[in-house]
């Protein structure tokens, strides 16, 4: 066995037997993090060598539009882009093919057979326009890249895709509050326009609730509860990865946590309501154009919002 190095890999370190990590066994751990922008571009170039690329393909732009993607995801994007080109009978892979591949990876395949009735289509258009308008208005909102009301995946009837300008590793309290307002923008738009709500905001509410609970219990962003962490996490030996949360606080503290989470969500709702009621005409224009075209680029969204702020006709 001289000169033999035994290596192993896992995506589930929390379930490993501690005995496996003792000295003389797998006692040295190396964390392979997700690739950053430079790494993603290099990975894309590696997988794109087997493709014939059109002149408009910019792999740096593709890398910028895939934050959080790992190597397998990026390889999949190159493969999907090639399939898209083949379906269109093109002999070269274009930037549009990469865009379609990214959409498919993020939101799932288009479900064109799942046709929305006119009333549903209108509601989804306002819902997604609400997300987009709040995102373009809050101070820390990431730029809107694309808004779509084409059904995708298992349940998504539409989506608003935001992409960061730069790689980010931290989130401020203001940024988290802005994210909550953006997530609630779709539901609020439905309230304003239809005077009722639908089940389409369920995932938005789930994500907003997760953000505010993290703010209150893990990040010390509640003045009432102070700069403390609530809910002790079991420490694991492997890489210091944290496992299941163990509640270590009283019923009274649990009540305060729930109240603070509710307050933060209500604040986000109020902000979204103020933005959308104050920009009702812009909301109407965005929704009408989205209902007509089904997909809007970030540039189209930004143009409508900018002209509205300048008092020009869209």
List the helices and strands and how they pair.
Layout (H helix, E strand, L loop, with lengths): L36 H12 L10 H6 L6 H17 L7 H13 L10 H20 L6 E5 L10 E4 L10 H22 L7 H16 L14 E4 L6 E5 L4 H28 L1 H14 L1 E3 H13 L4
Antiparallel strand pairs: 1-2, 1-5, 3-4
Helix pairs in contact: 1-3, 3-4, 5-6, 5-9, 6-7, 6-8, 7-8, 8-9, 9-10
What does this structure look like?
It is built from ten helices and five strands; from the N terminus they run H-H-H-H-H-E-E-H-H-E-E-H-H-E-H. It is mainly alpha-helical and 314 residues long. Helix 6 packs antiparallel against helix 7 (202-217), helix 7 (202-217) packs across helix 8 (251-278) and helix 9 (280-293) runs antiparallel to helix 10 (298-310). The protein has two domains: 37-107, Helicase, Ruva Protein, domain 3, CATH 1.10.8.60; 118-310, Up-down Bundle (Methane Monooxygenase Hydroxylase, Chain G, domain 1), CATH 1.20.58.760. The relative contact order is 0.11. The termini are far apart. The strands form two sheets. Strands 2-1-5 form a three-stranded antiparallel beta sheet. The radius of gyration is 23 Å and the shape is flat.
